[in-house]
Amino acid sequence: MNKKVVTRFAPSPTGYLHIGNARTALFAWLYARANGGKFKLRIEDTDRERYYPDAVKVIYRDLKWLLGGKDDVTLETDVEDGAVWDELCESQFARADRHREVAEKLIAEGKAYYCHLSKEKLDVMRDEARKNGGIIHSPYRGLTPEEARAKAEAEGDDKDPVVRLMVPNEGTMTLNDMVQGEVTVDNARVDDLVLLRANGTPIYHLSVVVDDYDAGVTHVIRGADHLNNAFKQAHIIKAMGWDVPVYAHLPLVTNMKGAKLSKRDADVALWDYKEKGVLSEAFFNYLLRLGWSHGEDEIISREKAIEWFGFDAIGKSSSKFDEANITHLNVNYLKEANDERVAELSRDILEKKLDRELTEAEFITFVKAMPELKNRVKSVVELVDLSMFMWVDSEHEETMFKGLDEKSVKNLVKPLKVGEDGEMSAKDALEKCISYLEGADWNKTDFNQLLCDFSNEQGFKLGKFLMIIRIAVCFSGVTPPFEVMELLGKDRIINRLKTCLKTCF
Q1: Given a cut of 80, is residue 386 above it in pLDDT?
Q2: Given this model, what pLDDT does residue 83 score?
Q3: Average pLDDT over every residue of 340-362
Q4: What is the tens place of the pLDDT at every residue in 353-369?
C-alpha cells in the first residue's frame, strides 16, 4: 500500500517571503491537497545570525493570504486563524537535541566519525582537492572516537572535533526526481559531509533529514538549487536505514532576460502585490501557471487547481516572472469578485488616504459604485484612486480645483462650439447647466441623460461638454462613468459645479 502523501514547506525566517519560495509553497500545498495528503510547515531557524523573529509572522501571514485566500490577514492574526497547513513546527532550532541523537547513533554504528582536522590543514586539503578535481579525504575517516582523539593529540589537531558522515567511496547514487528525471552522481565526488559542528550544533543537512523523517514527509518539493543537496541528504537517510523521499526540484524563477530574479527587476516580496491591490486568487493563479499548465486554461480557481495539479505538467526550464501577466489576471478576477468584498478590500487603503474612517452611509455608497469602478481598474489601489472625488467635502473643493493640472485647466476653460459657426464660453455653459440641473426632475432622468439632453438643447458637441463636467465634478478628465458621479446626489453635484465656477473662472 502506498504511503499517504505528506509534503512540507520549510522557509528560513531571514526576511520577506519572496516569489520563488511562494511558488514552492504553492506547489507543495497543491500536491498534498490533490492527493488527499497533508501539507506541513516548518520554520528552519538554525541560522541564528540571520534569524529575524518577525519574519516568522510574515510567513504565516503571506501563506494564509496566498493559499487560504484570507483577505483580512495581518501580522497580528493568530497563527491558527485560517491556517492552511496541517501541522506546524515553529522551530527547527528547538529540535537540536534530536538531531544530535541521530548523529551519535551514526557514530555508534561506525557510519560517522570524529574529525579533528584543524582549519589550517583543512584549507590546504581543500586547495589541493580543487586543483586535482577531487574531494577531501579526512585522515580521521574510519577511526573510533578513542583512536581519533589519540591521533589528534599526537598531531596537534583540534581538541574539539566535527562529526562527519562516512560517505561510500565507490558506486553511484541515483535519484528519480519528479521534475528533473533520473539523476545520477558518483559517490566518489561527494565529500564526507559534516553533521555536527565542533561546538555540537547540527548542520543544516542533518536537521532537514531528521525533521523530514520525524514528520513523515514522503515528497520533498523545493527549488532546483537544492538538487545537489539532495544527494548529500540521501546519504544520511540511507545511513540511517530510512526511506528516501520522492524529490521534485522545481526550475528557478528568472526575470524576463533569463537572469536570476532580484529586487532590481521587480517587487519580489509576496506581500508587495497584496499592497499593490492584487487579489489573492489572482496571484495564486499567476504563481500556479509559473511553470505549470493545464492545456489552454488560463483562469484556474483553487478548486480546479487541486483537481488538476500534477508534476507531469512541469518542465525543466526556468520560468520567467512577468508582472504584466499578474495585472491581466487581476483585472479578470476583480471584475468577477463580489462588490461588497472589493469594497472591503479597498476600505483600508481608502481610509488611510483619507486619514479617517468611512461612515456606514459612505460605505454603502462605495459598494453601489463597485460595478462600475472595478470594471475600469487593474488593481484595488487604482480603484481607490478613481473613487477619491467621492470623498472630497465642500470645505476642500476649492483646494482641489486650485490644484488642477495644466491639461485639465485647458480642457475646463476652452470655449464650446455651438452649431456650425457659433461659440459659447465654458463659463456660460457651466452657468446654464447649473440652472438646468436645478430645475430638472432627477427622479425621472439619470445624470448622464440630463447632461445629454442639455447638450442637445444648446447645440454643443457632447464629448467636449462632458469633459468639462467630468473635471468640474471629479477634478480630473479621467473619471468613472456618470452613474458613479450620480451617487454624490443632486445637491452635492450642483454645489460642486458652483464651486468650480467660482474658483476656476
Answers
A1: yes
A2: 87
A3: 95
A4: 999 999 999 999 999 99
Give, in order, the Cα–Cα distances in Å from 424 to each of 364, 410, 414, 463: 39, 15, 9, 15
The 3 state secondary structure assigned to 283-317 is: HHHHHHCCCECCCCCCCCCHHHHHHHCCHHHECCC
* Residue 260 per-residue DSSP state: B
Examine the pLDDT at 262 and tell me if it is beyond 70: no
For the record, the C-alpha cell of 61 comes out as 501571514
Give Cα separations from 247 to 226, 233, 242, 265, 320 (angstroms): 10, 11, 15, 30, 23
Cell of 27: 506547489
Residue 402 region by backbone torsions, left for phi larger than 0, else alpha for psi between -120 and 50, else beta:
alpha
If you count DSSP H runs as helices and E runs as strands, how many of each does the chain have, helices first?
21, 14
Render 374-403 in DSSP notation, one character per residue.
GGG-SSHHHHHHHHGGGG--HHHHHHHHHT
φ/ψ (deg, to 5) at 442: -70, -15
For 144-185, the pLDDT digits (tens) are: 999 999 999 999 998 899 999 999 989 999 999 999 999 999
Q: What is residue 2's predicted lDDT score, i.e. its pLDDT? A: 61
Instruction: Specify whether the CB–CB gap between 190 and 231 falls below 8 A.
Output: yes
**Phi/psi at 247 (nearest 5 deg)?**
-105, 150
User: Which pLDDT score, from 0 to 100, does residue 263 have?
Assistant: 59
For 184, phi and psi rounded to 5 degrees?
A: -125, 140
Proportion of the chain above pLDDT 70, given as a percent: 98
In whole angstroms, what is the distance from residue 10 CA to residue 221 CA?
10
> Over the chain, what is the mean pLDDT?
93
**Amino acid type, 459:** G
Cα–Cα dist 468/466, whole Å? 5
Q: What is the 8-class DSSP label of residue 249?
A: E
In SS3 terms, 159-217 reads as CCCEEEECCCCCCEEEEEECCCEEEEEEHHHCCCCEEECCCCCECHHHHHHHHHHHCCC
CA distance 45 to 62: 18
Prediction pTM value:
0.91
- CA separation for the pair 37, 472 (Å, rounded): 59
Phi, psi of 440 (to 5 degrees): -80, 155
Helices (H), 83-174: 96-108, 119-132, 145-155
| C-alpha angle 15-19-21 in degrees, rounded to nearest 5 | 70
Q: Which three cell numbers stand for residue 413?
A: 476653460
What distance in Å separates the CA atoms of residue 464 and residue 391, rounded to the nearest whole number? 25
